[in-house]
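#onboarding

Welcome to the new folks! Below is a worked example of what a typical request in this channel looks like: someone posts a single protein sequence, and someone else replies with the predicted structure as tokens. Don't worry about understanding the tokens yet, we'll cover that in week two.

Example request:
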Amino acid sequence: MSKKVVINKRLKGLTREALDQLSKTELIDKIVQLEAYNFQLKNLLQKKLSESDKNNAEYKTLLREEDGEQEPIPTNAKQTAGKPSSKRDKQRKFDWSSAHRRHVLLKIVYFGWDYQGFACQEDSNDTIESFLFRALLRTCLIESRNTSNYHRCGRTDKEVSAFCQVISIDLRSKFAPDLQMKADSLSSEIDYCSLLNRVLPKNIQCVSWMPLRSPVYSARFDCISRTYRYYFPKGDLDIEAMQDACQLLVSHGDFRNFCKMDVHNGVTNYMRNLQVAQIKPCDDTKLQKDGESGYAMYYLEIQANAFLWHQIRCIMAVLLLVGQRHEKPSIVTELLDVAKNPCKPQYTPAIGLPLNLFHCEFRSHTTRRTNPSISANTEVDDDDDMDSCTIETDIDAAAATDSDLTDWVYSEENLQKLIENVQCEWTQFSVKCSMIRNVLMQLEEMLARQFKPQLMLAQVLMLQDSVKPRQYQPLLQRKRCESLENRIDHFVKKQRLILKPDNTESEQNKQLDENVA
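Example response:
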């Protein structure tokens, strides 16, 4: 019988009944241990947080409490005790007991080069998701993250951007559930995007929202394909060779040699359906028409049902080696043959800054149960994207007449403001680009005039986040990482993973025997 690898989920703390059985000495030891752990966390936070984070009121209060400091009492406290409180003090908490909610998709665009990634992190407040939930709470669109029925389409890494990040979430609504899908209600509903964009940073903005018919529709589990783009200059690259390598990538195969294996989180299946991989030129400019120019811009467009941790960056690293003529396009076929090459050669992924989540496609009907068992608190961490482990269930034909999806709702004023913000971003970086380009032209002219005309094509070096070796070593001759089987054995011994009998095969055989009988 085959074995199934699962995460060994340990209890995070003792139950109240278990604590009741401990002696006084054991309880004191437990308290000392927890205080030491909190002290370590506080030191970690102080090292990791930026200056803006340290000035945040929430973190100030937390760090002050850890140091044993009390909130300073104003000198005029006694004088103001009898006076009426200020307007801020008079503000009442939002009454969620009488509030209506609707389930929606939100489409978000962000430039991730100033952030530590999309998903919230314990040791950093500088993530897109942190700013997003701060805005949702500040505008009273949600009561809390735990009760918001939240899912994200993709989890982008540090510095990675998104032109089409989509989340599903329950937001406050003006209307009762039976009236929410009427045309009048949709036209006069809360302008979610404009409201959020007023309190979000200018490089994180909400584009549009979509009302959903199903209350359990998930941006994560009901997404059927994600498209990423990775922008890069031509430099000294052989674009035709890279295109040939891309054609070999399109397959339903085992991509363990094109990712960072996340075995400790229970990811042991590296089969992915890569649907599209192609190199395309950017806008048709004079630089693009000049085939010899190293400054012409291209992008890798890659589409799949889901992606593994660092999968696109690893693919791009191999494609760059092919483009530099260090490897042949057939290296892709060699790395996809895990029977012949079960261990990944050691190489560094390409940097994350040029990567962005460009487009997402969703199924018309959710495959999730009416009462979802997976919430926002139990999400599996991936890097480039979330695994497409949907919760499958049969869809009633009568209930499937109307699609769960509707039309995206846009606001003209919001789009105008969004274009204005992005144009300002474009101006800032376009001015810098033009200045740098002029400096490069002068330096290249100096080199040609003082010495001899020569073509310098080093534009791609920045994308390869590694030291340039004096002598190139082919991928298949490099040191290898551990195999998948060795990693599984390692984490089983560490009790991070456990092996369970896979009953799927035996049940199928039993069903087959019954059918034959």
